[in-house]
Amino acid sequence: MLKAKKQNMHNEGFIPLSIPSIDEETIEEVAKVLRSGWLTTGSINERFERALADYMGAPLVMTTTSGTAGIHLAIVASGIEPGSEIITTPFTFVATANAIVHAGCVPVFADVDLNTLNISPKAIEDKITSKTKAIMPVHYAGVPVDMDAVYKIAASHNLRVIEDSAHAFGSSYKGKKIGSFGDIQVFSFHPIKNITTGEGGCVVFRNEQEADLFAQMRFHGINRSIWDRFKKQSGRLDYDVVCPGYKLNMSDIQSVIGLYQLKRANEMNNRRREISAKYSSAFENWDKVFVPDKALYDFTRSGHLFPVLIDLKKTSLSRDEIIARLKEHNIGSIAYYYPVHLFTYYREKFGYKLNDFPEAEDAGCRVICLPVYPDMTDDQQDFVIATFKKILKE
Ligand SMILES: Cc1ncc(COP(=O)(O)O)c(C=O)c1O
Question: pTM of the entire structure?
Answer without folding.
Answer: 0.96
